[in-house]
Structures are given as structure tokens and as C-alpha cells.
Specification:
The protein has 11 helices and no strands. The protein has one domain. It is mainly alpha-helical.
């Protein structure tokens, strides 16, 4: 009887409490914290209205943008690592997925956050590091070539899904397929307005001078 109760408690802790905590972790807005500390402003009131690294980069410059990128990436890494340590690959996927969801819809910030890309990169680096690095390279090449951050981000996500997800489905690692599919769905939905602007030909391009430090 006591052993059964303990087993239930451990199951609840592992599959409900920990994933919920990872959702909250993902929702701790690095962008809002950085913009508030540096300028005393809510970054969501400027630019695209997102608290993600790209909007911070465009609004506040290279240093703050890089800080937000790293901060959001670390949240994804932490969520996936905790899940893997406590329950293996499937729990890592669930925790990572919810961290991305938390980044996009943070409960601590009126459900208005970033677009999940940096946090997704952190999750994928834990689950399949080499494929994630390849996807990051794809993303940066597309961004450099086109100047569209949204397009590069989505290209990287698709690249990861193909490199890790599809191959994993046929290689005994089906969890990689499902988490990549789920995360892609979240991030593509978060980019729905960007997709519309890309199709209409009026998406904002990134000024590379910001990255070289000549601006910001």
C-alpha cells in the first residue's frame, strides 16, 4: 500500500509537477527582464511586440539581443536536461515542449512572450546536439542570405525535423520526431503573422550592421 502511494507520488512529480515547472521556467521572460533593467521599459511595447531576442536586438542593440538569445536558449537546455535526468527521453521531450510553450505564452506575462526559437534551440541541443548544430547553421545561413530572421528560424526548425526527427522515427528514436513536430507547430503558429508578411512581400529585414556593432 505504502509502496503504491509512493509510486503514484513519484509519477505525479515526474510527469505533472516537473513539466509544469518547466513551462513556468520557459515563461520567465529574459527579454522583459533585460529591457526593464537596461532601459526601464517593456520591450513588448516596441517593434514587433515580442519579448524575444530579435525584437530586443532591433530595439536595444547587439549586446542585449545576444543576452536574451543566450538566456532563452539556456532555459530550453535546462528543461530538457531536467526531464532527461528524471525520466529519460520522453520526459525530456515533454519538458522541452512545455518550456517552448511557456516562452511563447508565459503565464507570468499575460501570455505574451517571444516566439520560442531560442528556447527550442536549447531543447534540441540536448536531445540531438549534432543535428541541432546543423539546424542552427542552416538558420544563420538563411538569415544572412535573405536578411529574414523569421525565415531563417523556420528553415532551421524544418532542418532539425528532417535531420533528427524523420531519421529518428525510422531509427528507434521516435521521440525526436514527435517533439520536433510539436515544437515546429508551436513556433510556426507564433510566426503566423511573419509568414503572412513573407507571402505578401513586406516582412522586415534584419540590418546586419546591428550585428557588426556599427549600430545599437
Amino acid at each position: 500500500m505504502a509502496a503504491g502511494f509512493v509510486a503514484i507520488c513519484l509519477w505525479v512529480l515526474g510527469w505533472i509537477v516537473v513539466p509544469a515547472a518547466c513551462y513556468v521556467l520557459g515563461g520567465l521572460s529574459t527579454g522583459m527582464w533585460v529591457s526593464s533593467r537596461l532601459k526601464g521599459l517593456d520591450i513588448r511595447q516596441f517593434g514587433s511586440g515580442s519579448s524575444g531576442a530579435t525584437n530586443v536586438l532591433r530595439t536595444l542593440g547587439r549586446g542585449p539581443g545576444l543576452t536574451v538569445f543566450i538566456g532563452d536558449l539556456v532555459k530550453g537546455v535546462a528543461a530538457a536536461l531536467v526531464g532527461r535526468l528524471l525520466g529519460g527521453p520522453w520526459l525530456a521531450c515533454l519538458c522541452g515542449f512545455l518550456a517552448v510553450a511557456g516562452n511563447i505564452w508565459p503565464v507570468t506575462a499575460q501570455f505574451k512572450g517571444g516566439k520560442g526559437v531560442s528556447t527550442a534551440a536549447g531543447v534540441f541541443l540536448v536531445l540531438a546536439p549534432w543535428q541541432a548544430l546543423l539546424a542552427i547553421v542552416v538558420a544563420f545561413v538563411v538569415i544572412y542570405w535573405t536578411r529574414f530572421v523569421s525565415l531563417g528560424s523556420m528553415a532551421g526548425l524544418v532542418g532539425y525535423w528532417l535531420a533528427a526527427g524523420v531519421t529518428g522515427l525510422f531509427g528507434g528514436r521516435a521521440h525526436l520526431f514527435w517533439v520536433a513536430l510539436g515544437v515546429n507547430a508551436l513556433v510556426f503558429y507564433a510566426h503566423r503573422h511573419n509568414i503572412r508578411r513573407l507571402l505578401d512581400g513586406n516582412e522586415n529585414k534584419l540590418d546586419l550592421a546591428i550585428l557588426t556593432g556599427k549600430k545599437g
